[in-house]
Amino acid sequence: EGVDLYLLPEPFSGLIAGEFGPLLVLSCRVCLEEKPIKPLSCCKKAVCEECLKRYLSSQVQLGQADIKCPITECSEHLDETTVLYNLPHDDIIKYKYFLELSRIDSSTKPCPQCKHFTTFRRRGHIPTPAKLENKYKIQCPSCQFVWCFKCHSPWHEGVNCKEYKKGDKLLRHWANEIEHGQRNAQKCPKCKIHIQRTEGCDHMTCSQCNTNFCYRCGERYRQLRFFGDHTSNLSIFGCKYRYLPERPHLRRLVRGSVC
């Protein structure tokens, strides 16, 4: 006689099939909820998809291209595949831009208006004085914006970069113009490229030279023991907009007396 065989379901083992391999039901290190999670490849810690997406999106909004692992005790950076897979479409575009910007050398810069990249090619012959003045003049092939490659600003006809940076009203108006409640751009105090912030705090990290600076005042972030840092109201390194912004002389007097 024939014998009917039945396969009994195996007891739940904590494994769920995922797109990139099995997912373990683990406790997320961020929200502490138990969910199907694929551990991070760098440290094998558990961070759920929702928390990872939220973290990555916040880092991209801050202009980060080399994103650290969200686990504080891990010093590794997340691989590009993990980042791209967990970002929404709009953030992917920003992330790829920041990534490209972090990999280029000083001979390539983005257009200050539309971010189209231009490479400046030096010629072997010595240019005439007339041509020397205009050799850094760039017209963006994408948006037709005319800008200076040397100082990464709108083109300043008849004025050298040093004079232009000292007080040209066009630069001040363009950089300080308020759109959607914030200034249009801020220059990195080290490499001088313009940084535009979409959202987030005032602490910025330049994607080209990794300099930390304040988006509001443009100064570098500095910190010394006993003297405070850029976020301290009474520190000599504090942002001028944090304490008595309308009374600079009194602000310097008070901060100097505290030290």
**Mean pLDDT over the residues:** 77
Rg, alpha carbons: 25 Å
The number of strands is 14
The strands making up the biggest β-sheet line up spatially as 1-2-3
CATH superfamily of the domain at 12-103: Zinc/RING finger domain, C3HC4 (zinc finger)
Count of individual helical segments? 7
CATH topology of the domain at 12-103: Herpes Virus-1
Element pattern in H and E: EEEHHHEEHEEEHHEEEEEEH
**How does the major sheet shape up?**
3 strands, antiparallel
Helix/strand/pairing category: alpha+beta
Uncertain segments are 1-13
Give the structure's gist in a few sentences.
This is E3 ubiquitin-protein ligase RNF217. By secondary structure, the protein is α+β, with helices and mostly antiparallel strands.
Please provide a written account of the structure.
The protein has helices at 49-61, 80-85, 89-103, 129-134, 161-167, 169-176, 248-258, and strands at residues 15-18, 21-27, 34-37, 108-110, 117-119, 137-139, 146-148, 153-154, 178-179, 182-183, 186-187, 194-195, 203-205, 212-214. The chain is α+β, with helices and mostly antiparallel strands and 259 residues long. Among the domains are: 12-103, Herpes Virus-1 (2-Layer Sandwich); 109-116 and 136-172, no CATH class. The strands form 6 sheets. A 3-stranded antiparallel sheet has the order 1-2-3, with no helix packed on it. It has a 3-stranded antiparallel sheet with strand order 6-7-8. The longest helix has 15 residues, at 89-103. Mean pLDDT is 77; it is low at 1-13.
